Amino acid sequence: MDDCGRKSGHLMLITPERVFYAGLLGRPRARCSGAFNIYVSIEGRLWLTTADGLQSHGDIVSVLPNVRHTIASDYRSVLSIVIEPESVPAGLLENFHRRLMGPEGVAFANRIRAAYLELREHHAGADFSSAEFDTLCLGEALPRRVLDPRVARAIVQIGKFAGEPVTAASCAAEAGLSPSRFLHLFKEETGISFRSFRAWKRARHLLHFANQDINLAHLAQDIGYPDSTHFSHSIRRFYGLKPRAIFSGSRDLAIYSRGA
After folding, report:
1. How does DSSP assign 170-222, residue by residue?
2. DSSP result, 41-56
3. 114-142 pLDDT, tens per residue?
């Protein structure tokens, strides 16, 4: 861990299918992540409120993908695990959510706290897989979803963030399908529209740079946002914070990124 991360205890491990975050929670504004989120308190308790008015509290709470919610904590920092929904079989996250919010929740919370202590001392190696991540943080490797190869290739292209933004038309052409057929196949395989999936992955990619002193307008352009307004609106929707607030609160964050 770098010096700033060692002093603060704040860290983030990013892999293509998972994120482990230990850091500031920020003000409890509504957010709507494109992934499955598990929140664990470092001290005190957490309070979760979803857009439909359902409330829950405890040492651990979880939220299904694309559910608008507000999370608050007794303590200014929190532990969080992010699981990309296309990486696990359909229906698994709903079942796992029930386990986390049930009697097993305490054991999972303790396991995630122990994983945090382990990552503080020995951050993961460059070949850290999703199975290894799950075993460390959850005590079990979650099964993998087998995607249609044409959709899997499109997801890889979306995740490269190099050159021109990836479009449905370009992915359809590479897959040998019409745009309409490709869009139908993509949603059928992933459970979400191509456009929404790409928007989430674009916002997720921001995390790799969160502790850097960087020009946000240039970063927005590099990631593929058409302008600063779209950039700010998208980040606030997914994270509940403006981009500048994310970067301001991440200056002492040690970030470890793993390749695809």
Report:
1. HHHHHHTS-HHHHHHHHHHHHSS-HHHHHHHHHHHHGGGGTTS---HHHHHHH
2. ESSS-EEEEETTS-EE
3. 999 999 998 766 678 999 999 999 999 99
Say whether 17 sits in a helix, a strand or coil.
coil
Residues 6+ apart with CB under 8 A from 253: 4, 5, 8, 10, 11, 12, 23, 210, 211
Q: Which domains, from first to last, does the chain contain? A: 3-145+252-257 (2.60.120.10)
Amino acid, single-letter form, for residue 250: S
Retrieve residue 227's tokens: 């302008």
What is the spatial distance between Cα 183 and Cα 194, in angstroms, rounded to a whole number?
A: 6
Grouping H, G, I as helix, E, B as strand and the rest as coil, residue 21 is strand
For residue 17 the two structure tokens come to 């299918």
Q: Which amino acid is at 207?
A: L
Q: Within a 10 A sphere around the Cβ of 2, how many other Cβ atoms?
A: 13
Residue numbers in the chain where pLDDT is lower than 70: 1-7, 124-126, 163, 259-260
Three-class SS of residue 241? coil
Cα distances (Å, whole numbers) of residue 40 to 22, 168, 245: 9, 37, 22
Burial label for 244, CB within 10 Å (0-12, 13-18, 19+), is exposed
The model carries a pTM of 0.94
DSSP state letters, 64-91: -TT--EEEEESSSEEEEEEE-GGGS-TT
| Token pair recorded at residue 176 | 């040998």
| pLDDT of res. 244 | 94
